[in-house]
């Protein structure tokens, strides 16, 4: 077990700390703690403990079956050679550093967990542990740290709509003041709840699709950024429910139109310097930053098995909808899969980053960040060369020009993504054999689950799942 791995029985002082926190939480009227992780299918799964049992959870964990690593989004179970049986148990250990009192769920606190075997070893399919190890290795081998953030888009529906139908809760136009006004009270409560939970919000605004909003939050180290993504979605859902509304983070709420994205923003840093700014390369990138971007670009087809993992993801990944469906990069180019964000002159040393666009919120954020970082580090290690950038919409290129520029359409089906992932030794190694096999099995299970459905049927099947 490495120094970066969680220690069963509590890290030094963790049990004492949990005991003290339990008293503090009780004094704040908190009765229970949500212990949360995200499974292979991208679903946030939870167990809860009474506040008085927090110290026991920190000491010995809370039991949960490893079978959840092979759950599909709709709770059917697939099997691999290692996972998917009714046998065995894991322990969920709360990260007390991330413990948060939930402002929109009075009486509750929340904490992400690491999953540990009963023998005290990290569970090989724990995405949070895999991401932590990837970040640690980047620091040890390349002297690089990362800052990351996940954009969150969601559709707000009326809570009184019939059945599973989606009826937008607002009627105003995209980015319009009317839409903001119509949802003003709910949005204000959301900002207040996130502020109370210590979440730094950069922007909150109406988006393009019917009933759609987007929130951008401050960057953190990748593990904390993934934790924050889960927490923010929990908060959005809770606030909306208190206002009689229903929210969907699904990649596609309807069979046609613009879907919900979950774009990743990532920057690499060495000795306190942002490698995406102040360098001699294009738009201020250093040579290492260019190679990192080139690595992500090279692995994009396989990455989509992790960043756009649902059958509904393909309803979002359509050309000319700013979803980034071509293997291309450009500065502030919203149709390219990789958008180099330089920020405004005067803040570039802080703000410059890489945006990965073919990502949605069906993705497990820990696995998405792990795979993107691993892809970029592969490019950095090989000093990969970044090709010519594109401007405008790559969909305008004919076949010959696209081939000359190295611009390819990303996989148009989940099956193609799974095939690319199976052939990508770098990404599979980053996840490890157990988790890589679970990803493949779950994706194939999702493909089988929607066999015969048209676009509207696929959208309806996942509309309220994520």
UniProtKB/TrEMBL annotation:
Asked whether the UniProt record includes Ligase among its keywords, one would answer: yes
Q: Does the keyword Electron transport apply?
A: no
Cross-referenced SMART domains: Gln-synt_C
Record domain GS catalytic: where: 127-466
What residues does the GS beta-grasp domain cover?
28-120
- Assigned keywords, A-Z: ATP-binding, Ligase, Nucleotide-binding
Q: Name one Pfam family in it.
A: Gln-synt_C
**What family does the Swiss-Prot or TrEMBL record give for this protein?**
Belongs to the glutamine synthetase family.
Protein name per Swiss-Prot or TrEMBL: Glutamine synthetase
Species whose genome carries this gene:
Streptomyces ambofaciens
């Amino acid at each position: 077990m490495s120094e970066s791995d969680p220690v069963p029985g509590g890290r030094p002082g963790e049990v004492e700390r949990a005991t003290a926190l339990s008293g503090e939480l009780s004094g704040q009227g908190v009765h229970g703690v949500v212990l949360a992780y995200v499974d292979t299918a991208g679903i946030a799964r939870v167990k809860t403990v009474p506040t008085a049992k927090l110290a026991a959870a920190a000491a010995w964990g809370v039991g949960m079956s490893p079978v959840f690593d092979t759950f599909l989004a709709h709770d059917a179970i697939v099997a691999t050679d290692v996972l998917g049986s009714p046998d065995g148990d894991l322990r969920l250990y709360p990260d007390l550093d991330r413990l948060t009192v939930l402002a929109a769920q009075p009486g509750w606190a929340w904490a992400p967990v690491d999953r540990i075997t009963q023998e005290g070893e990290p569970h090989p399919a724990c995405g949070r542990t895999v991401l932590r190890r990837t970040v640690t290795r980047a620091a040890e081998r390349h002297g690089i740290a990362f800052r990351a953030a996940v954009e969150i888009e969601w559709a707000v529906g009326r809570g009184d709509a019939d059945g599973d139908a989606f009826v937008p809760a607002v009627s105003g136009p995209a980015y319009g003041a009317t839409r903001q006004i119509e949802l003003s009270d709910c949005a204000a409560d959301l900002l207040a709840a996130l502020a109370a939970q210590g979440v730094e919000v950069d922007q909150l605004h109406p988006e393009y699709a019917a009933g759609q909003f987007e929130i951008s939050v401050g960057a953190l180290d990748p593990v904390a950024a993934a934790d924050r993504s889960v927490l923010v979605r929990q908060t959005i859902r809770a606030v909306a429910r208190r206002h009689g509304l229903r929210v969907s983070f699904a990649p596609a709420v309807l069979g046609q139109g613009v879907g919900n994205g979950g774009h990743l923003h990532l920057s690499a840093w060495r000795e306190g310097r942002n490698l995406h700014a102040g360098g001699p390369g294009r738009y201020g990138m250093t040579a290492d930053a260019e190679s990192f971007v080139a690595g992500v670009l090279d692995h994009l087809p396989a990455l989509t098995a992790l960043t756009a993992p649902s059958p509904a993801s393909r309803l979002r990944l359509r050309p000319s909808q700013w979803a980034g469906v071509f293997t291309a990069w450009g500065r502030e180019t919203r149709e390219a899969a990789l958008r180099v964000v330089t920020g405004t002159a005067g803040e570039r040393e802080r703000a410059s980053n890489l945006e990965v666009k073919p990502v949605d919120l069906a993705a497990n954020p820990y696995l998405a960040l792990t795979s993107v970082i691993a892809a970029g580090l592969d490019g950095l290690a090989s000093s990969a060369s970044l090709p010519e950038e594109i401007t405008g919409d790559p969909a305008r290129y004919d076949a010959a020009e696209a081939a000359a520029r190295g611009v390819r359409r990303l996989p148009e089906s989940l099956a193609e993504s799974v095939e690319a992932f199976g052939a990508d030794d770098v990404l599979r190694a980053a996840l490890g054999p157990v988790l890589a096999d679970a990803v493949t099995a779950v994706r194939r299970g999702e493909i089988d689950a929607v066999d015969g459905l048209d676009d509207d049927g696929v959208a309806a099947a996942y509309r309220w799942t994520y």
